[in-house]
Amino acid sequence: MPSQHKVLRFGKGFRVAIRNARAEAAEMVIPPGDAEGDANNRHRGADQWLYVVSGSGKARVGERSLRLKAGSLLLIERGDTHEIRNTGRTLLRTLNFYAPPAYGKKGRTLSPGKR
Question: Could you list the residue range(s) of the whole structural domain that residue 62 is in?
Fold first, then answer.
C-alpha cells in the first residue's frame, strides 16, 4: 500500500483522517461546554492515544479525572470508559490514534472482532 498523506483541518466534530489495517488517526474538535463520550463510552478492541493540539478540557477515564491542555498526551487503554469534555472558552482540538482501528471508513464504531 502506498504512503498516505493528509493535511489536517480540525473542522467540526470527529473525522478519521488516515487508516490502515493496524492503526488509524482521527481529528476531534469539541466546542466549549460540550463533551465526547460518557460513562458507557469505551473502545473494546483498541487503545486510544489522545494528543491535545489546542484548547483545554477534562478527561474522565474510569474513575480518574485528568486535566487536559495543549501538549497533553493521554493513553486510554482498550475497554476503559471515558469522556472528553471541553472546559475552556475555545475549541478543544485533539489528534487521536487508535491501535488497532476503532472506527470504520464512515466513522462507525467497529466491534472488537471486525478489525
Answer: 13-99
